[in-house]
Amino acid sequence: xARINLKRLKNxxxxxxxxxxxxxxxxxxxxxYSGKRGELTSILRSLKEMPKTKRLKVGRQANELKEFLIxxxxxxxxxxxxxxxxESKKKEWIDVTLPGEKxxxxxxxxxxxxxxxxxxxxxxxxxxxxxxxxxxxEWYNFDTLNIPKDHPARDFWDTLYLKGGGLLRTHxxxxxxxxxxxxxxxxxxxxxGRVFRxxxxxxxxxxxxxxxxxxxxxxxxxxxxxxxxxIIEEFFRRFFGKRVKIRLRPSFFPFTEPSFEVxxxxxxxxxxxxxxxxxSSWIEIMGAGMVHPxxxxxxxxxxxxxxxxxxxxxMDRLAMVKYKINDxxxxxxxDLRFLKQF
Length: 342
Ligand code: DAH
Fold this sequence. Notes:
3-stranded antiparallel sheet, 2 domains
């Protein structure tokens, strides 16, 4: 009886195994035979109730059957797995006509664009572009520029001092002396670069911003304020893309004599009056003057031999006027909604 049962079970299982179409079905089938309540499991469980001779015989046959079934299941499982892999490979299809993913293109920061434009204009006017260190010392940042230690003028520049004696340059003017020490005039340079101030930030002040310094030196008597005016007027005309008027107002800087502030007629309203020029129709844009004799002396040059002009302006301010930006902090915010407009 048991023997017949086992044989029948074997044939039945064999037929059912080859009918399975996927691993899930196969798993279900395996449980039907060898699971906790499986058909073969219950035969094996009933062995202990059989008389000893029968138990030995049926037990051996049932275990053989179990091993046989496991081998059959494994074989079928491997077959089904291969089959499904092949099918999924067949399904994979590449649409070569699909447009590719768009690569996001960035662009230069408005301050970089401004710097490049400034460099381009001055280079075409014969100026070389020079750089200097952002970490300076008191000698170059102040003393050489005729700003003595205890002179109140030093307070014009709210300075960030570094441990160990250095400081972060408060302006690009120290590069005037650094360059004059190593290069004999005649010369024409501009010095674009980053400067630092220890001050509270607001719409027109930042703790770091960009300046561009200018210096033109030649033999005594050759360079005058008239040259300065001509060059700077041409610069503004090209920078703003239209003719603007300039005006010089007497001022004070320790490193120039005479010194003046330079205003441009408001390029935004053209002189009618707007919020950018505070209805004055003029915008203050740079400091300038004729190089002070002490600056030549401190650079190792005889002021009796040389003469020239110098100027310094904020590049952020230039960009703000050109692009009508009302808050300097926007440049450093990293805000893409702002940056994408340029
Ligand atoms: N260094 C000055 C500042 O930071 C700007 C300046 C004024 C530079 C007059 C000059 C100059 O070269 O002649 O405020």
